[in-house]
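Input structure tokens:
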């Protein structure tokens, strides 16, 4: 597999309103896309930064991955997402190497993307996402 770019950094935030207000105040930026990803129990807001993005994540369920993260660690960088051209092949490749994957097959992400997470125990403590862009970011 080839990592094409950092598609986004995911940042856990108690509310999108607060995160969007801060981006406006600090950088004069507005969110380009806001979307609920039901499967992941989050609402997301995307800000484009050059070839990459910031994805703010508000939990919709305290028992979801971001809800639990906020409860334990507070707001901050939650994951890094690498874009690949074929996420199915990338997941198969990692599974074939015996890598512990959170997702055994890609799931739906924001912007029509398909995503799969590698367990942080395999990555030196950084939650890594592989994503195949839906063509919009
Ligand atoms: N980054 C790094 N480490 C993390 C982490 C994160 N974001 N979230 C949890 N961990 C670590 C914890 O520190 C803990 O480590 P230790 O065992 O060394 O203490 C370990 O993972 C287990 O943590 P936990 O709080 O018990 O949480 P769970 O095992 O229930 O879940 C994880 C952890 C990573 C498996 C879960 O968060 C997950 O499945 N994540 C993938 C899906 C996801 O994050 N979705 C939200 C974003 C969706 C989107 O961008 O659209």
């Amino acid at each position: 597999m080839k990592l094409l770019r950092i598609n986004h950094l995911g940042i856990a935030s108690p509310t999108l309103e607060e995160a969007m207000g801060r981006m406006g105040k600090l950088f004069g930026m507005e969110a380009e896309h806001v979307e609920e990803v039901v499967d992941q129990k989050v609402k997301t807001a995307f800000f484009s930064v050059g070839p990459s993005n910031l994805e703010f994540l508000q939990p919709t369920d305290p028992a979801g991955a971001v809800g639990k993260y906020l409860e334990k660690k507070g707001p901050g960088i939650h994951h890094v997402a690498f874009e690949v051209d074929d996420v199915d092949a990338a997941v198969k490749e990692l599974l074939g190497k015996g890598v512990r994957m959170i997702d055994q097959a890609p799931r739906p992400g924001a912007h029509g993307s398909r995503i799969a997470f590698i367990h942080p125990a395999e990555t030196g403590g950084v939650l890594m996402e592989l994503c195949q862009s839906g063509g919009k970011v």
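The pocket of carboxymethyldethia coenzyme *A is lined by residues 10, 37, 40, 42, 44, 55, 57, 65-66, 68-69, 72, 78-79, 102, 109-110, 117, 120, 125-127 (CB under 6 Å). Residues 16-27 form the longest helix (12 residues).
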